[in-house]
Design goal:
Elements: H1 6-33, E1 57-62, H2 78-87, E2 92-94, E3 101-103, E4 111-114, E5 117-121, H3 136-147, E6 162-169, E7 172-177, H4 184-187, H5 196-201, H6 203-208, E8 216-222, E9 226-231, E10 245-250, H7 254-263, E11 268-269, H8 277-280, E12 285-299, H9 309-317, H10 321-328, E13 333-335, H11 358-367, E14 374-380, H12 383-398, E15 402-408, H13 410-418, E16 424-429, H14 438-446, H15 450-455, H16 462-475, H17 480-497, E17 500-512, E18 517-518, E19 534-535
Parallel strand pairs: 1-10, 1-11, 14-15, 14-16
Antiparallel strand pairs: 2-3, 4-5, 5-7, 6-7, 8-9, 9-10, 11-17, 12-16, 12-17, 13-17, 18-19
Amino acid sequence: MLERTSKEVDRRGFLRLVGALTTATAIAGSVAACGGPSSTAAGSTSGGDAEGGSNGTIEAGISYALSTGFDPMTSSGATPVAANLHVFEGLVDLDPATREPYAALAAAMPQQVDDTTWRARLRSGATFHDGSPVTAEDVVFSFGRILDPANSSLIVQFLPFLDTVTAVDSGTVEFRLKYAFPLFATRISVVKVVPKKVVEADQKAFDAKPTGSGPYKVVEATRQDKIAFQRHDAYNGPRPAKAAAMVWRLTSDPTARVSSLVSGRVQAIEDVPYVDVAGLKGKAVTESVESFGNLFLMFNFARKPFDDKRVRQALHYALDVDKIVATAMYGNGIASTSYLQPSHPDYHRAATVYAHDPEKARALLAEAGASGLSVTLLTTNTGWVNDIAPLIKESWDAVGVKTTLDIGDSSGQYKKVDAGDFGVMAAPGDPSVFGNDVDLLLRWFYGEGVWTTKRFRWAGSPEDQQVRGLLDQAARTADAAARSALWNQVIDLVAEQAVLYPVVHRKLPTAWSDKKLAGFKPLPTTGLSFLGVSAA
């Protein structure tokens, strides 16, 4: 039986934590047998370093391997994107926890010259990790390579307003826009500044071992093992490194990740398994932060009967999302009532909300001539998604939809999607790692790009054209209230169409030792941030 009682949930958590504690004891014993604390690649001891503070080493448990390189023009993997927060700077960056913008490589927030012209002055004395100064030429190069269609950058879709970027002098950059874009000063945070000479000399080497201007530099990166960082001593920006080094242990196994925290091998872990959140209390600080990160349903608009919105809506109405949240997520989720999570500053409750309504689901399927539908649900083998997939099948089977699960690794599943070999997919998504404004979040899935053309395949449909038209209109609208009204129209439209739409927004559980880390905050995005954090 799929439904778990509270006693069963507690028992699973208890047994898992016992396993973690047993493993932790073994780890502690092996370390003691070796005669002392484990050494790091940076040559410092772990976070319990006797010197502590700015001379300590922060060690963390990261749940994802290095799926891509570090080059911020193309990097999309959860782990390298999180690492890049510490390695690179934009002219403007977003605080990882609050998502508020601040001047990073820029000496101050960019200044508007006129409706379509902005200027930014570089921070004096900023240097890359190789000791070379950061110049306006590097900034121009960093934007130019993203805008170059030949480079197929993921970031270019967030910069449709940008026309030219030029150096006024060695420390000043001027931006000319195609049209007035009110979100300019925040949006340019998506571009991280890279050293032109280093990238041009060997882009592949740069992708594997990056050179930035941030407070930490990468000294070692092994795909399935770890990333080791050292402090960039010449850094003079607003977020200096407060530890001498960091080691990120790439630990995809959830039990091992929990064990590493309990044993003290690491001081913080991301992606705490939902079953372990309650059991870790008293052994570490745990906090689940509401996020945009979600599980979505995506339909192949080019395949019948999924071109009929009644079928898509029916499969949403059939889902018992409250049961999914309570049973598979242990309460660490929120049933979607909008494209945005309720904590988002621009949250708008969609005109269509998919409450659990099996009768409505059956009626819509009957109207569409799809009663007795057979569906193969493609999904990824991400841990928390694995727990949800059987409950989706249960809900769909209950309204007469014969459901088969096809679960596999993300790269293999998306190969099927990109080849058009699917009808329905359930998968996790979170573009908020790039930014938090509504325009960016909507353009990731609904803008002109890979999702609309190669994945859910509704590019060119009247609804697709309407969404993009509204987004473009909002992007040109200076009045905040009018802009918000246009975004709300888009949210209502994508909810009604449900061609790609969230089922549930996640709460992201993070755990850490407040005795060993000072200044640490959990994030509303995938990953961890140690900007401003010291090893106590």
